[in-house]
């Protein structure tokens, strides 16, 4: 998809603030610091619309970006950071559960993970949760530029096996640095929102 327009609609702290236009929505989930904001910026050709390196533990919001007036990205708060209080974790759980179970225009989730390492406990728990809820998932394994091409198949296998991915779920190698995987990711997103 050629992105000609992308804008932040709202950083929502409460479901009452979620956009009501009912455009198909793709939510992005990933461990804090995995590279989720960088992926969004690369997908929409913006250097800094989705802010990078946000501090863990700050107010948790779901950020809604409208793209070309035809779909919305919902950027969920990062999960799995080690040093936050129980209260912050509980708030993350409440917000995410409410969003994932009640958002009627949700077309699917883009789960962002780090290609370099085996999926973390939190990555695995998130994937299992999404499967349990019956939500379609695309996995984007980012930071592909940080390992050599020859190692990609091995790391891809590590992700698939670590998450116990269903064979029908797409796994896309991505790099926000080089743009690797961008077209493939847009085409999978296109498939989800037209289903
Ligand atoms: P977020 O917390 O998941 O939104 O992560 P960010 O997008 O802020 O990225 C965290 C760090 O990883 C930043 O220093 C980014 O520059 C870096 N980063 C993110 N994606 C990539 C990538 O594809 N390749 C490389 N080399 N670095 C990346």
Automatic annotation (TrEMBL):
Cofactor list: Mg(2+)
UniProt entry tagged with the keyword Nucleotide-binding: yes
Keyword vocabulary terms for this entry: Cell cycle, Cell division, GTP-binding, Magnesium, Metal-binding, Nucleotide-binding, Septation
EngB-type G domain ranges (all copies): 22-195
PROSITE patterns assigned to the protein according to its UniProt record, in alphabetical order: G_ENGB (PS51706)
Family named by the database record: Belongs to the TRAFAC class TrmE-Era-EngA-EngB-Septin-like GTPase superfamily. EngB GTPase family.
Chain's role: Necessary for normal cell division and for the maintenance of normal septation.
Descriptive protein name: Probable GTP-binding protein EngB
């Amino acid at each position: 998809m050629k992105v000609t327009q992308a804008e932040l609609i709202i950083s929502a702290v409460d479901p009452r603030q979620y956009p009501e236009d009912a455009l198909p929505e793709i939510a992005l989930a990933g461990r804090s610091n995995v590279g989720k904001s960088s992926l969004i910026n690369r997908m929409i050709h913006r250097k800094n619309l989705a802010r990078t390196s946000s501090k863990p533990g700050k107010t948790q919001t779901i950020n809604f970006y409208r793209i070309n007036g035809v779909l919305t990205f919902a950027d969920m708060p990062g999960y799995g950071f080690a040093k936050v209080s129980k209260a912050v974790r509980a708030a993350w759980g409440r917000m995410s559960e409410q969003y994932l179970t009640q958002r009627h225009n949700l077309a699917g989730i883009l789960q962002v993970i780090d290609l370099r390492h085996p999926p973390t406990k939190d990555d695995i728990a998130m994937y299992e949760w999404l499967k349990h809820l019956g939500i379609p998932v695309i996995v984007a394994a980012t930071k592909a530029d940080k390992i050599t091409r020859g190692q990609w198949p091995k790391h891809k296998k590590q992700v698939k096996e670590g998450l116990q991915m269903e064979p029908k779920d797409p796994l896309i190698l991505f790099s926000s640095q080089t743009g690797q995987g961008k077209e493939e990711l847009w085409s999978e997103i296109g498939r989800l929102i037209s289903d």
